[in-house]
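Table S2 (text version). Query chain:
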Amino acid sequence: MLVTNIPQKKNIRFTNFADTKMIDLFNQDINFERNWLPKDGIVKYYGKVFSRQQADHYLQTLLQTIEWKNDEAQWYGKIITTKRKVAWYGNLPFSYTYSNVTKTALPFTNELLHLKQIAEETTGEQYNSCLLNLYHNGEEGMAWHSDAEKDLKKDGAIASLSFGAERKFAFKHKESKETISLTLEHGSLLLMAGTTQSHWLHRLPPVKGVRSPRVNLTFRTIEARNL
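Corresponding structure-token output:
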């Protein structure tokens, strides 16, 4: 049985965090310039970029306001539906195809625009779209893959914000099979840049004992031709 702690959508009033700023207090022990990959790419982990109150606020806001749908993949002509849910947003109605299924971007919400601004200011990159994933508990994960679809800007930066349950995130080099892993915290930011997608796979492995949800936002750049 699927166990979740996700509240139903309802009419609520959210706290206004429009003036949220990065606060170094949360990350005094983290080296922002460290590249977690030994070669062939760039991965930077900024740690927690929100206070616990702010991270809790965004988790609940995203759970209740995003238009979540079960993800789909086409495998040998059959459509497979996952327990994990996804949503696709953008500056424009970009088309994005992965797992042989095409999605059309919804307009950014105010919360997503603000989170995009924070990701851009922190990483120094620009993004025009966001793929969101909702993992209801530790049983749900993501298999090895790279974000190198033709719709995406080649070697474009991807900023990954995590809210909710802390989960292990792993990288594996496509040739040497070397692996690197780190734990993504509630309210944290990770950057994948350079040739990371060309040379490395990444995944979110399932884990036992995690009963709370995790929401992940990956801000990315779709090439303008994909309209």
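Notes on Table S2: Residues 52-65 form the longest helix (14 residues). DSSP finds three helices and 14 strands in the chain.
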